[in-house]
Design brief:
Helices cover about 75% and strands about 0% of the residues.
């Protein structure tokens, strides 16, 4: 695996984690239903 590819995967994982955090935050606010 090249360094660039590794960095890209790290970035994707970071974004995925942020998205999970956002989802968890929205789950806690039940008044904001979709």
């Amino acid at each position: 695996m090249s360094h660039k590819v590794a960095l890209r995967y790290l970035r994707i994982d970071e974004i995925r984690q942020k998205r999970l955090d956002m989802k968890n935050l929205s789950d806690h606010r039940q008044d904001e239903t979709l």
